């Protein structure tokens, strides 16, 4: 999945580069995450085996019946043109259906589509809404990109190095290598007080609870990269 760049500002290039890898990872994870669901496991396995016609037959009735995992997979198939004609509007529609049911992967994709303006009017504030929903469920990729939005003051977000550090700390714990690298880089621009606050915030946060909107010390970083 390649997100289309519609904002040429240099500070966004890292953000978009890191997002491009997302769908490959979640496609691989589909069969593992949902293997216990009757009916969906067969569709996910067929998809991962590149038997897209069978996957479509298996998941279509489930998606139409309101199964969030099936709706998310339908969205992926439409986005990537696998088993169906590529259709970004259909992809967004199916992902949104799953997202409103609380499917974190789908919430992340809806956020990404709002960020890039793919099949929808570009709206960074809406992107933040969906990224935050996913991040608050412990979704590492959403935490990582939300951290970038705090780091680079995107979509009206306050520039807050402490919250960015906190989010990257959480995302790195969740397996995001990009977040681990970004966390290491931002340390060079943070005071010891900011680092300590970021560590305390990440240690105190629990999944499925609100993430802090701002920090006490992070609004005025010691130095900008």
Quickly name the level 1 CATH class of the largest domain: Mainly Alpha
- CATH topology of the largest domain: the name is Serine Threonine Protein Phosphatase 5, Tetratricopeptide repeat
In the CATH hierarchy, the architecture of the largest domain is Alpha Horseshoe
Low-confidence stretches: 1-11, 23-36
Q: Looking at the chains present, what oligomeric state does this protein adopt?
A: single chain
User: Helical percent range?
Assistant: 55-70%
Alpha plus pi helix count: 12
Profile the largest sheet. none
Mean pLDDT, rounded to whole units?
Answer: 85
Short structural description:
The chain has helices at 13-19, 22-33, 40-48, 52-64, 68-80, 88-100, 104-116, 124-135, 140-152, 161-173, 177-186, 192-204. The chain has 225 residues and is mainly alpha-helical. It has two domains: 7-135, Serine Threonine Protein Phosphatase 5, Tetratricopeptide repeat, CATH 1.25.40.10; 139-225, no CATH class.
Salient structural properties:
225 residues; mainly alpha; Serine Threonine Protein Phosphatase 5, Tetratricopeptide repeat; 0% strand; disordered N terminus
What would your notes on this structure say?
The model is unreliable at 1-11 and 23-36 (pLDDT under 50). Helix 2 (22-33) packs across helix 3. The radius of gyration is 18 Å and the shape is elongated. The protein has 12 helices and no strands. The longest helix is centred in the N-terminal third of the chain and has 13 residues, at 52-64. It has helices at residues 13-19, 22-33, 40-48, 52-64, 68-80, 88-100, 104-116, 124-135, 140-152, 161-173, 177-186, 192-204. The protein is an all-alpha fold and 225 residues long. It folds into 2 domains: 7-135, Serine Threonine Protein Phosphatase 5, Tetratricopeptide repeat; 139-225, no CATH class.
């Amino acid at each position: 999945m390649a997100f289309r760049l519609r904002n040429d500002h240099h500070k966004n290039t890292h953000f978009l580069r890191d997002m491009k890898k997302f769908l490959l990872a979640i496609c691989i994870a589909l069969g593992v995450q949902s293997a216990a669901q009757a009916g969906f496991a067969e569709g996910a396995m067929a998809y991962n085996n590149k038997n897209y016609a069978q996957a479509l037959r298996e998941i279509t009735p489930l998606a139409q019946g309101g199964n969030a995992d099936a709706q998310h997979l339908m969205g992926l198939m439409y986005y990537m043109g696998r088993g169906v004609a590529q259709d970004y509007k259909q992809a967004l529609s199916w992902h949104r259906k799953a997202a409103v049911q609380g499917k974190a992967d789908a919430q992340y994709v809806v956020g990404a589509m709002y960020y890039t303006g793919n099949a929808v009017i570009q709206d960074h504030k809406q992107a933040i809404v969906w990224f935050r929903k996913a991040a608050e469920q412990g979704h590492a990729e959403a935490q990582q990109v939300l951290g970038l939005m705090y780091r680079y003051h995107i979509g009206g977000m306050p520039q807050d190095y402490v919250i960015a550090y906190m989010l990257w700390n959480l995302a790195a714990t969740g397996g995001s290598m990009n977040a681990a690298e970004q966390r290491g880089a931002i340390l060079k621009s943070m005071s010891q007080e900011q680092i300590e606050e970021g560590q305390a915030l990440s240690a105190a946060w629990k999944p499925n609870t609100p993430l802090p909107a701002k920090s006490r010390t992070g609004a005025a970083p010691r130095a900008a990269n």
